[in-house]
Amino acid sequence: MARKKKPPEHENHERWLVSYADFITLLFAFFVVMFATSQADKGKAQQLSDAVTKALDGEKAVAVVSAVLGGTVDDKGQGNAMSRGPGGVVKDLPKKLPPEEKKPQKLAELAPSFKVLEEALAKEIQSGKIELSMQGRGLVVSFTQAALFPSGADVISTDAYQGMGKVAAALAKIPNPVRLEGHTDSDPILTPRFHDNWELSTARSIAVLNILTERFNIPHERFSVAGYADVAPIATNDTSEGRAKNRRVDIVILNEEGVRGEPGQKVQSSH
Known about the structure:
Elements: H1 16-38, H2 42-55, H3 58-68, H4 111-120, H5 122-127, E1 130-135, E2 138-144, H6 145-148, H7 161-171, E3 178-183, H8 197-215, E4 223-227, H9 240-246, E5 248-254, H10 256-259
Parallel strand pairs: 3-4
Antiparallel strand pairs: 1-2, 2-5, 3-5
Helix pairs in contact: 2-3
């Protein structure tokens, strides 16, 4: 008796769904792992380390944790997983940020200081002991020799302290560098203390420096000292009146232009 043939089985056209589902599952797992490693923090690392340590001995546990979190293990068995992200890219930050460099202090505008000194020194200006002027290099306060020193000497008279104190008060309120410039007339000098006008003019500048720094506590690093002898007169040396004007010490509060001529000075605009 002939057997009946089994009808042919229908071809399963949905088998691809199984492979597709497996692929999606693996892809999902991959992104979960990537997300977990990218979001690693100290708490997760510690939890993972504790869990692995229970199953493995210490050194192997450290190696596994470091490998999972993308780090490496050094020769002491210490992992650096927290300093690396996925792919082992180093993300180390300096333990201590470098200190911010101090910026040079801006130079003050000198017009307000000129007005303040003009009012404060009105008595001295009226008597002719002090002159104020605004020049290209800055604000110039000129003390006549008669207002500060006996003839041929570099010791400041105590009568000049009041006027110098007013100038010092103005200097304390502004950051600008100050140059002290000593001047003489053209009459030569030769004494046991001073061999010429260069020594006398410089010594008088230094005497003013000492009063401003020691008596009125203006920082010495703000100053420079110059002696010009008779080479920078402001009046003729042919008359006694002109020579009297030339014998002076100028306290020059430097502006930006004046500071450019000073060695080692950094100029920063106040604008």
